[in-house]
Amino acid sequence: NEKTRLVGDRIDLVPYCKQHVVQNHEWMRDPWIREMTCSEPLTLEEEYENQVSWHLDEHKMTFIVLDKNLGGECQPVGDVNLFLIDEDDEDAVVAEIEVMIADPRSRRKGLAAEALKLMVAYGVKHLGCSSYVAKIVESNEVGGIPATRFLPAGQS
After folding, report:
1. Where in the numbering of this chain does the N-acetyltransferase domain appear (predicted)?
2. Within a domain: residue 155?
3. pLDDT tens-digit map of 112-131
4. How far apart (Å, rounded) are the C-alpha atoms in residues 83 and 151?
C-alpha cells in the first residue's frame, strides 16, 4: 500500500512513511493520546523502527489522516490503522480498525468517521475483509458520545 492514496471529501489518507515519524512521535508524547490509544511512550528511534516494521508487515495498514481544510492545505492530523486478525475461520478475513485524530483543531468535525469509512471500503475491496473489530477506551468520548453507548446491551 506504499503508493496508495485514499481520497475523501475532507480528508486524504496516505501511507505512514518515514517523513511522518517525527509528527507521530510528537502526537504520542501527549499522555491523553497515549491513554486513548492504549499506547506506551516510545523513543524517536523506536518510532522509526516501528514505522519500518509496519511498512514491511502485509497484515498492518497504517495511513496518516490529512485534513484538507486546515490552514488552506492538507496537513497531517492523525492516523488510521487496519490490522488483519488471524481467525479460526479460514474463509473470514477479519481486521481490527482504529483511528486517532491527534490534532485538536481537527477533532469533532467528522474526520474520524470519514477515515473509518475510507479504510473499511479499502479493506473490503483490496483485502477481502468481511468483518471489523474496533476497540474504544471506555473513557473516550466518540464525537461527544461516551464510548459505553457503543457497547452491547448489558455491558458497561
Report:
1. 10-141
2. no
3. 999 999 999 999 999 999 89
4. 21
